[in-house]
Amino acid sequence: MAEPLHQPPRVDPVWDRIREEGRALIEAEPIMGGLIHGAVLHHATLETALAYRFARKLASPEIGEQLLREIAADAQAADPGMGQAARADLVAVAERDPATQRMIQPLLYYKGFQGVQAHRIAHSLWRQGRRDLASLIQMRTSEVFGMDIHPGARIGRGIMIDHAHSIVIGETAVVGDNVSMLHSVTLGGTGKEHEDRHPKIEDGVLIGAGAKVLGNIRVGHCSRVAAGSVVLEAVPPCKTVAGVPARIVGEAGCDQPSVSMNHLLQ
């Protein structure tokens, strides 16, 4: 059905670019036509494509694909900002990951991007009080993508989790906007507390591979956590910390470390 004449034309440069890249991919590699049509070209919006990809990847004998698509659509309806968060994540990956030449790549291949989108659905369910279903989505996300994010954790926009294997984020953790982290990062607790017990990562932070940030501590905006560090104390804004336990070793080195992705300490 045609859109009413009084409505302005839809403007969605991210989704339009992905669809263009999909058509070009089919021309270059026709054998992938079924995947590209199913995952991209059969969908009018990025939101429906995300729901389809979520369902295809997480379906199992315990919960079917059609039901998962309905769950995703309900979560998107309950949280209209979910699609815009996904667009910000796609842009973040395209800008920060040198292995990414096309916007379609995270949607098709990257478990970091796909795992974060699955978490957004689980988090929406958690907020609605549907906690067993949210926990089921968390379990399947961990099994499929190798990253374990509690559905209660709050994740911002413009998130880039590179490689993503063995990511662990606890229930009361908060991750701000425009944060980048690499594989094997843990945002965890330090004991058996039942209340607020996990880290708060402010906007623009870069967390290196294998870093552990533990306890209800705050990592200030635009800071860097060096690879392999164990952070047990709060980190001021715009600083670099490194070591076990981590200590301040200098300034962050730039205004936006999560965008520059520079992990060097000097």
From TrEMBL:
Keywords: Acyltransferase, Amino-acid biosynthesis, Repeat, Transferase. Its EC number is 2.3.1.30. The keyword Acyltransferase applies. Residues 14-118 form the Serine acetyltransferase N-terminal domain. GO terms for cellular component: cytoplasm. It holds the Pfam family Hexapep. The keyword Flavoprotein does not apply. Pathway: Amino-acid biosynthesis; L-cysteine biosynthesis; L-cysteine from L-serine: step 1/2. Transmembrane segments: none annotated. It catalyses: L-serine + acetyl-CoA = O-acetyl-L-serine + CoA. GO terms for biological process: cysteine biosynthetic process from serine. GO terms for molecular function: serine O-acetyltransferase activity. Belongs to the transferase hexapeptide repeat family. This is Serine acetyltransferase. It comes from Hasllibacter halocynthiae.
